[in-house]
Fold this protein.
Amino acid sequence: MAALSTTGPAAVARPGRSLSLTTRRSTHARAPAGRARTVRVAAQVRIQFELEGASPDVRVIGNHPALGNWDPAQGLRNGDYITLDDPGAMRLEYKWHNGSEYEMGGNRMVVLPDAADRDVSLALAVVDRLRAVPDVVYQPSVAQQQQAPPPAPAPVPAVEPMYKGQPAQYAGQSGYDGYQAPVNITYHDHHDPYYDNDDHDDDNDVIDHSYGSYEAPPAYQAPPAYEAPARSHNDASPGSSIDDGAKRMQFVPVSAAGSDAGDRKPDGSGPPRWFREGVVYSIQTLGFCGCEGPPGSFSEGERLMKLLNEGWIEHLARLGCTVLYLGPLMRASHDLGHGYDTADYFQLDPRLGTVETLRKVTDACHLLGIRVIVDGVFNHTGRDHFAAQDVVRNGRNSQYWDWYRGARELPGGGGEIPGWEGHAGLPQLNHQNPDVRRHITDCGRFWMSSEGANIDGWRLDVAHEVAPEFWREFSAACRDAKPDCVLLGELMHGDYNTHVGPGLLDSGTNYQLSKALWSSLNDHNYWELAHSYGRDKDMYGSLTMLNFLGNHDQMRIHSRLNNPAAHYPLAAASMILGRGVPCLYYGDELGEQGKPGGPEGDLAMRRAIDLRDALANQNAKDVAGRTAELVALRRSHEALRDADADQVPLAHTNETMAFARVAHGGASAVVAFNNSDNSQRMTLPVGEKIGAHDGCEFEEPLANGQRLHVSGGQLHVELPPNGLRVFLRV
């Protein structure tokens, strides 16, 4: 039995869809002494079409009589099947139709397997990959249109919101479960070779995306080896139009599925459940797209489409990430161009595209159950912002004189605005001004609206520099526009409780924990990490914070660690499996390196990455696979999944550490680390600490589910060199 996935354009519902094929064929053989004997022949292919979440009116139509010859009224319903006799290597072309219009994108096509060997039995599963960029929309001939009765309007199938209706043991292992290498299936006109195949035939590429259903099993399953996503067939270059007039299929994005507040805490505080149980993937947008710097040095174009055209959205899904955080992408000023120098809060930077470009990216993410938050730089603007320009020209006579802090009139006329923290190009806004507050809240609402890009929330730059009273007003406006939005503040200094809490921000970046996640490994000093965990719990135990190993301002984790090959998995596990929401910084899961101080400066931490080239390196694929394994483990178990589940210290030395995670419902897990080059033994008092007394069992998901028994109120654990073990209470 083999299984594979193939690419295809976006359909009318979220892409958990599959085309299942089975074939059985036998051949004639020559018996001894020249006598002919007949071997049973059953040359049939059974095809069942499945589209997860589709409405009853969705049809499969195609160029074969069994598919209605492009007549929607005669097409197959979701779940129906056909049996084709002796199809040979027939090419079957088809599309999805929602009762009123065809899906966008080119026609789907599969080449059915020609099983010529005797007694061959194949079982194939074809899963269509999201393609949000339109290709060609099939239009049936006039004769075909006349033969078919006019279809009745059908409701557009809705995309279920992430986690809605999921069982309590939702695992969410994204696209790693159950898909292996392909067998004899190609996709029409989309060349997406399997990445390890260096001698592929470009005219008949075999495709493997290891891309499965998003309905994950209720218990942890180790993901197969990581496979890279395919590069899109779309070759839209910067500046070219990707709108060929094809009709976009309508669907309900995940963030617009309900009017509730997203299952927050009883007092209404904290982030919604989709964030609390999520895994964030952070991208520094301009650097990622290769255009950070003065805008005049770059042409305009839809570089943000790199996320779709080069398979990055699928890459996120394979890793198991459920939230995409995009660094600043609004129109920047001419002199700096790093994105934190906003010139226009209501336009996308022309280097990246337009509002519509971001909307396409958000739509694509929503179809895959991925929420999107973007960077809001609301502490300061750039010098090209209309208000700053007016102050510089007109001085005290400007109607925007009070929009900025510390503006002063120049003797010769005009005005000057000091920059935030001495950065001349970043004039700091005065949030006491009602017009400033209105301008920023209008921006917050705009990008979360359908008129904007339908994003799901904000990461708020240097939020600790802005008075909490403003964030209270901003929070109310954003929740009024989108009740289940999230507001994540960048908090580097002070008491996080000042800015995160009821009526304020939902979460903050946990800088005060970040250092210990890596320095405890370089120094072989788990006392530091244990102390930092304890301090974090004591001071911020009621908050839901975002944990990270690195970001656009910091040295990359693989450059930071003294022994990244041995210690990256330990650092990643301490972030992913610990309390709080984990955040991966793009490229860290590929082993990317970068540190400031060289000729690139800070750009060394936010270079453009070619995903295809990166994953051609087996080490990068191994790191990605290990990262995905940890994410899948987190999302598979209640005690690990919920960022607010308690974290209980069990034991630690310089070289070893263990903690337990205990969910509100009582589920518990134990995580143990060893940062030394030697095996270590730990005795963990699980009876005293988490009530796991004699007779309790723990299973080890990363070791084929082997079980350990509590004896004398303790777990006795052997840890491999530079290794970790995870135990889930049975």
